[in-house]
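Allow me, if you will, to draw on your knowledge of protein folds for a short while. I have a record of one protein: its chain in single-letter code and its fold written as discrete structure tokens. The full record is reproduced below for your convenience:
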Amino acid sequence: MRRGLLALSPLAVFIVLYLVTSIIARDFYKVPITVAFVASSIYAIAITRGKLARRVNVFSRGAGAPQMMLMIWIFVLAGAFAHSAKDMGSIDATVNLTLSLLPGQMLLAGLFIAACFISLSIGTSVGTIVALTPIAAGVASQTGTAVPLVVAVVVGGSLFGDNLSFISDTTIVATQTQGCKLSDKFRVNFFIVVPAAIVILCIYLFMGQYISSPASVPHTEHIKVVPYLVVLVTAICGLNVMAVLTLGLLLTGIIGLLTGAFDIYGWFQSMGNGIVGMGELIIITMLAGGLLEIIKHNGGIDYLIELLTRHVSGKRGAELSIGALVSVVDVCTANNTVAIITVGGIARRIGERFQLDPRKCASLLDTFSCAVQGSIPYGAQLLMAAGLASLNPASIVPYLYYPLATGIAALLAILLRYPHRYS
């Protein structure tokens, strides 16, 4: 037991450095998460037995593992595509197109659908919040609707796409750590979260029936929506994610050049900025991979799995332990991608031990982490939304119906063994 706790102590160092110091400072961005990972990695290497060169090799083996390098390649392509699409004007075009389709007297439901579609297309909840929150806050002020309510609608819809999108960080990490296809995980997730989204949509339809939609929406350049639509359709059809992102990247370049959004050098610059923007996530991925390899080498993973599954006798308990683990880590790190990276390997070991379907494991990791991430007032999503709408993040929390609904849906999927084909 003592050896198992010592092997797991690097995680405790990480939590203390990141979570405790952030609480003391009252700012979850005061301590860079990369610094917390570096410090805990140095500590992990220091407590490991053997020659220093051998300990470093163990860490490097985890940091440079094939699945880690594949994730990094995907992050590079996703960053290049997302940034070049943004500079080309795809986000504005997608926002305008969605808002132009809003039905009258159904503003809340329409904004929720808009946020769902945009986040599903661009693969980022924060990007969706940045695009829609200023519009939502302005509309709320014009119509006399509570601003925290309207902002919460956008936050909830943004998490729908973050959970389901093929180019979302969480989807990529969840599928890679569990060894399943993006399209397979999408199907499982669809059955779990879409019923929750429909229930919330009905609630918004009832709540917003007396609110008018915006009087005018800027002109939409429909051709600029094409890259997102092509990425969405080809990914659903099961095309390899790297091929999907490469195709989307080429389309943004061609359309951007034809419409004069940028020249060839501007496109290259945009791709470069997108790749650089993924730098922190790439570093976190490698550090987390190395840290977990050291913990695994010292027996910490086996000890943690034994501890979590000591009283587990079936698939329900195993899936609950996966959901609980990723939720706790997300509360500690305030980052759902980092949470999945951190516990993905452990979840896979639990899944193999209890013969769980890796597609459902990936879905549970993503869904629970997004449900928690969308509910904590110190997460990037709520901090960004609150900042753009000039609100206190805590004022948005009571209106966050969708994250709560997805958490309940994921819990029911475990208890009711649903969807049955993947259970």
The longest helix spans residues 182-207. The two ends are 33 Å apart (CA to CA). The chain has a mean pLDDT of 84.
